[in-house]
Every structure is written in C-alpha cells, then in structure tokens.
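Two proteins were folded this term; both appear here.
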Amino acid sequence: MPPKKSKPSPMQPSAELVRRYTDRFYKSESDKNVEIAIGDFMRHLPANTELFAVLAKVCMINDLLVTRLFKPLAMAQHILSLKIDQPLLQGSAEIVDKIAHLTISDSTRCNFSFATKYCASHSPGNYPISDTNVHQLLLAYRDKDKFSKFAEADLRQYPKFKVIVISFRQYYGLTGFSFRELDHFLWGYGKELFSATHTGRNK
C-alpha cells in the first residue's frame, strides 16, 4: 500500500495573513466584479415574495458562484414557500438549513453551500459562507490548535457552523474582520493549501 499523504499544516492566522487574501480577492477583476454584481442585484430585488425575483436571484447565485444547483425553479418555489424575509432580517441561522433541504419527488437533496451563499448575498453581516475549502481549513485549524471542539458533520448544520466560524475569529484575535472578509481568507487560503481541483465557490 502506498503511504498516506500527510495533511498540510496551515500557517498561524493573523490580521496580516487575512488581509493578504482579502487583498488578493479584490485585486481579481472577476471575483471583485462578481461580488459587486450580486450585491447590486440584491439591493434592487431585496424581497423574496415574488417568484420571478427569487428565481432570478437563485439563477444568478447558482451561475456566478458555481453552486451546482440542479433544479433552480424548484429551489425558487421552495424559498418562496418559506417566507424568508423576516428570518433574514433577524439573522436567523436556522433558515439556512431550511433553504438547503429541497425535496423533489420524495427525494431530499441538501444544497448547503447554495443556501449559505443565498443568505449571505442578502445579509453578509449575518451569514458566513460555507464550501469545501472553508470546511477543510477549519478542520485543519481544529486539528492543529484545538480552537474549538466540533465534529466534521457539525460544519453542515448551519447554526453550529456559524458558531464555529465565530469561535475561529475570536480564538485567533480576528474580531476586526467581517464574515465576508474572513470568508475570502478561508476560501482563498483553503483552496491554495489543499490544491482544490475546482475553481468556483461550489460544494
């Protein structure tokens, strides 16, 4: 049997390291303009009370953030049925899991990363984004520094995931950074460290 590859050990998080990856994100014309486009679109269509608006936002996020959502119309109808505007305004963590679990023909699929991106696009101050790169990096820091006790499965339950990200931010003295800035670091550094084969923000 070939020997197991050792997992890469991440550098100690610092304000300088986080800024390195946030600066890199905003120096990328494609990444910067995608964020601007989504933010502007959300400001023009903030409500989730009409199907055409929800569908447009679902399709935009699915395409630009590469979430690999297979049934955009079904997801839009699902979101509409949940009446999410008040929970989003309140920063409800539970609404993310409700959006994520979409049942079609008695089969339920968890679109977790999409749901985090949909909520974060509406209220970035309340919702850190989840994807594979973020999960891998949080697990690496857990194993290295024991910044928080959690199981890998906890990263796919949004209330727990959000608590883990907050714990990460506090443990490493990064409370001056927003969720969005921290996300650019976790995604960018995670992608670089683990040599992810995909290029989009998918999971």
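Next, the second protein.
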Amino acid sequence: MFDRTVVEALGNTDPGPLMNLTPNTIEEAGECGLKPALAMLGLVSKLGGGIEVLSYEGPFGVGYCNAVWTN
C-alpha cells in the first residue's frame, strides 16, 4: 500500500495521498522514500513542471521507484 501510494502521488503530482497515510502505515514501511517524494512534490508545486515516473519494482519486498522532475 505504501509503495503504491508513493508512486501514484508522484505520477499525479499530488501530495494529498501521502499526507493521509496513517502513522502505522508509515512506520511499517520504514518511511523509506517518503521525505524525498514529498520534497520532489514540493519543488514541483513551487517551481512548476511535472514528475515522470520512469519505473517501479519491488522484487525483494522493498520498493524501488525512479522518477524525474520534468519541465
């Protein structure tokens, strides 16, 4: 759930779903990637542009998302 929410928030450039995660969900995920994702979403909201999610995989129970800031 956590990984899917991060990828969707980045793809939609919408921090709302991340802000609505429960503390328990964040703790269970180890919150890995949450702060960088929020930082990227903040940059886009202030400086414009968009976010392109290049890939996501979770082969070992840990998710890896690659995204870039686009103009």
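The CA atoms of residues 55 and 66 lie 5 Å apart. The chain has one domain: 2-70. These notes refer to the second protein only.
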